[in-house]
């Protein structure tokens, strides 16, 4: 590579010396005039034409390249080669961002000479730049006709018949074609054809060993382009590399491959570190959380832009890797913008819901979240289509084809679509989440086996682990239509037993038991005071029924079982203290049963009479001051248990 660069530095001297030794090369095919005054004059005239065209381009940088005919396209091409050579020497003599940017403008102008309709939009600029130097090198090694022999604009009419409109022109004895664009925004322009752009590397491999047939402003221009680097990478660094690093591999120097792979490894690693840092705290919808999560897509945008700029402007990738930075940038931008839109939509929705007028669990809140997700999904699809289009995927054809084949696909994949829509319903409604304990559907078995913990909600099905430790997989289309009871979301658990007291129980005993049970519910520290009721519900076939209704202040099932057990033991004590008992089925009354305790029965009657005499009968409810007096006065855990002191 060092030899090539040194050759490029001396290219002006080589060109002038070659002109003196060989003379100029004529435009005409198979005509090489050595020492011929006429040929030299022709070349000087051509060179002056190119210089004038280049100077005109420099004076009017906003003017587009003239491609109105094959001749105009060739003239514009050679004017652009002269301008590229001049700007290259300026950069070589004084490397700086300004001189390199001026050289980069050649790539923008080159896009006006080539039909890039079959090149993905993301890579057109770099492909045009690569093709420009390839064609420059090829044309320098093949015979060209005189400028006058290259077709100009359509001559109009010949006699009374309209002339045939020229569709293409091919450089003699080559397959390099300048064709007329038939449709699109550049219709009517004569550009190097898409096939020429695609096969330019192949043409170069065939012609690279041929001698030059005319003096070149820069010899071995494509080899120089392969070894070219930006102003941040000094030439001395490149020349200091070992010979193996300058080996060409798939059209690019080996050291450039290694540098590109290093960049492609470091950028994702940095994004992963930022992502892990952002996920140290969970998403809560606040501005701080939004900004923290926003760091990852912003890092993707910044690092992708830096990677693209360094790979193209400093390393100057060529050959098979010429499109890699553009594709990486397009994909990274798509991912980052989709991420940004999704986060922003979610944050805006949560910010609106945080208003005091909107309950976080209300229907309005759910509708706002659904609208935000819909906007996010729409933006995701639009951006994905845009990125796919930039990468060359025919998305518009796919969308049109989807309308034609949509019905057939819907019929063939009806169950799949049902499950997908069920997934969207589960995602929108969020009846359960992973880790929730729930009851689902109707269970015909007495043991309620259709109850378990949600382990996974996939795109097609939901997995639940039952209380028997088995895994149940239910398609989302079916699961979303079930009656789902989310037991994890309970803030309290209901305590609702019915006590069946013996039919021999007196009215005073019933009143005493009811009063003592109400005191128990009010005094127990783990039972909520509202509602906490005990009512004489009615008469059974062989019992008097007392109905208890209260909530235990816990959402943990195991803790509820312990509290319920404590309440049951205390209920047994109250029933026994009142001198009554629990009823048995009528056929069991013939067993050896001593009946009710007479003394306690009389004590219960006496207590009720005392309440009535003092106008303190606790029916239908306790006075408010007495409720406050006994509220939470019981010990729980009860006295004697290991945790009683706590």
Your description of this structure?
With 646 residues, the protein is α+β, with helices and mostly antiparallel strands. It folds into four domains: 2-156 and 163-240, no CATH class; 252-412, no CATH class; 414-486, Roll (SH3 type barrels); 493-630, Alpha-Beta Plaits (2-Layer Sandwich), CATH 3.30.70.100. 52% of the residues lie in helices and 11% in strands. The chain contains 20 helices and 16 strands. It has helices spanning 2-9, 11-22, 37-59, 70-93, 97-110, 124-139, 194-207, 221-227, 235-239, 254-278, 287-315, 324-353, 363-390, 395-412, 414-429, 476-479, 507-523, 557-577, 598-613, 624-630; strands at residues 157-158, 161-162, 168-170, 177-180, 190-192, 248-249, 252-253, 437-440, 451-457, 461-466, 471-475, 484-486, 493-495, 498-502, 527-539, 543-552. The strands form five sheets. Strands 11-10-9-8-12 form a five-stranded antiparallel sheet. Strands 13, 14, 15 and 16 form a four-stranded antiparallel sheet that branches. A hairpin with a 2-residue loop joins strand 6 (248-249) and strand 7. Helix 4 (70-93) runs antiparallel to helix 5 (97-110), helix 10 packs antiparallel against helix 11 and helix 11 (287-315) packs antiparallel against helix 12 (324-353). The longest helix is centred in the middle third of the chain and has 30 residues, at 324-353. It is rod-shaped. The two termini are 82 Å apart. The relative contact order is 0.05.
């Amino acid at each position: 590579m060092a030899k090539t660069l040194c050759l490029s530095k001396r290219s002006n001297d080589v060109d002038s010396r070659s002109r003196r030794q060989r003379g100029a090369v004529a435009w005409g095919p198979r005509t090489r005039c050595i020492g011929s005054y006429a040929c030299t004059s022709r070349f000087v005239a051509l060179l002056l034409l190119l210089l004038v065209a280049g100077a005109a381009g420099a004076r009017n940088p906003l003017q587009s390249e003239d491609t109105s005919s094959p001749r105009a396209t060739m003239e514009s091409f050679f004017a652009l080669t002269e301008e590229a050579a001049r700007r290259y020497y300026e950069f070589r003599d004084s490397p700086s961002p300004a001189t390199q940017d001026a050289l980069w403008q050649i790539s923008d102008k080159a896009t006006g000479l080539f039909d890039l309709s079959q090149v993905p939009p993301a890579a057109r600029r770099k492909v045009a730049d690569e093709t420009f130097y390839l064609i420059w090198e090829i044309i320098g090694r093949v015979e060209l006709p005189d400028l006058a022999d290259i077709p100009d604009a359509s001559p109009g009419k010949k006699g009374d018949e309209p002339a045939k409109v020229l569709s293409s022109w091919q450089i003699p004895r080559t397959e390099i074609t300048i064709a007329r664009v038939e449709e699109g925004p550049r219709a009517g322009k004569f550009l190097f054809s898409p096939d020429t752009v695609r096969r330019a590397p192949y043409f170069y491999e065939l012609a690279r060993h041929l001698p030059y047939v005319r003096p070149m402003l820069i010899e071995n221009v494509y080899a120089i382009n392969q070894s070219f680097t930006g102003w941040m990478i000094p030439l001395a660094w490149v020349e200091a590399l070992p010979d193996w690093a300058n080996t060409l591999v798939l059209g690019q120097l080996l050291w450039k491959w290694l540098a590109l792979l290093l960049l492609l490894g470091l950028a994702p690693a940095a994004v992963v570190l930022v992502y892990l840092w952002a996920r140290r705290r969970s998403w809560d919808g606040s501005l701080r959380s939004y900004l923290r999560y926003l760091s990852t897509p912003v890092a993707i945008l910044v690092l992708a832009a830096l990677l693209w700029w360094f790979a193209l402007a400093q390393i100057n990738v060529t050959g098979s890797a010429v499109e890699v930075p553009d594709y990486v940038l397009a994909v990274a931008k798509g991912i980052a913008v989709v991420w940004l839109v999704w986060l922003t939509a979610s944050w805006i929705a949560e910010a609106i819901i945080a208003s005091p007028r909107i309950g976080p669990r209300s229907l309005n809140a759910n509708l706002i979240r659904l609208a935000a997700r819909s906007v996010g999904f729409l933006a995701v699809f639009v951006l994905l289509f845009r990125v796919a289009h930039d990468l060359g995927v025919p998305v518009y054809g796919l969308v049109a084809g989807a309308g034609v084949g949509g019905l057939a696909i819907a019929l063939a994949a009806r169950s799949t679509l049902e499950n997908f829509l069920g997934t969207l319903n589960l995602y929108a409604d969020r009846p359960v989440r992973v880790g929730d304990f729930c009851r689902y559907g109707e269970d015909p078995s007495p043991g309620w086996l259709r109850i378990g913990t949600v382990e996974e909600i996939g795109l097609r099905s939901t997995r639940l682990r039952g209380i028997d430790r088995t895994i149940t997989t239910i398609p989302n289309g079916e699961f979303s239509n079930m009656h789902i009871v989310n037991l994890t979301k309970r803030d309290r658990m209901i305590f609702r037993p019915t006590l069946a007291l013996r039919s021999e129980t007196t009215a005073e005993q019933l009143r005493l038991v009811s009063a003592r049970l109400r005191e128990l519910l009010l005094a127990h520290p783990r039972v909520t005071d509202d509602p906490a009721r005990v009512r004489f519900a009615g008469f059974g076939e062989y019992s008097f029924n007392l109905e208890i209704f209260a909530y235990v202040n816990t959402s943990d099932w195991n803790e509820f079982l312990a509290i319920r057990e404590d309440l049951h033991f205390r209920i047994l004590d109250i029933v026994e203290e009142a001198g009554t008992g629990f009823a048995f089925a009528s056929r069991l009354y013939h067993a050896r049963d001593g009946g009710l305790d007479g003394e306690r029965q009389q004590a219960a009657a006496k207590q009720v009479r005392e309440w009535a005499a003092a106008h303190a009968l606790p029916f239908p409810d306790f006075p408010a001051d007495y409720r406050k007096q006994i509220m939470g006065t019981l010990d729980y855990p009860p006295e004697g248990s290991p945790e009683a002191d706590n």
